[in-house]
Each structure stands twice: as C-alpha cells, then as structure tokens.
C-alpha cells in the first residue's frame, strides 16, 4: 500500500520536473527565463489586443 502510494506521488512529480526543467545541450546559448512567465503574455495580449496575434 505504501509502495503504491509513493509510486503514485513520485511518478507525476518526476514527469512534472522533466517538463518544467528540461536539459539543454551545453553548446546552445543560455536560456533566458522571463521574470513573469505567464503574466507577461497576458499583459501583452491586453495591451495590444488584435495586434498581438499579427506580431506573432
């Protein structure tokens, strides 16, 4: 019972970590992390409305 519960908690945690913090090739340039990951896009969408999609 404890092993099953631990597995049910650890497997999603491991997958979530892999999705949130992927490994990058050391030859690639450094990754720029945004200060406000989701909110920056929402603010741009509100400010630019229709022009936001044209800019993409």
UniProtKB/TrEMBL annotation:
**UniProt KW keywords:** Signal
Q: Is Signal among this UniProt entry's keywords?
A: yes
Hey, what's the signal peptide range on this chain? 1-20
The protein depicted here goes by the name Prostacyclin synthase
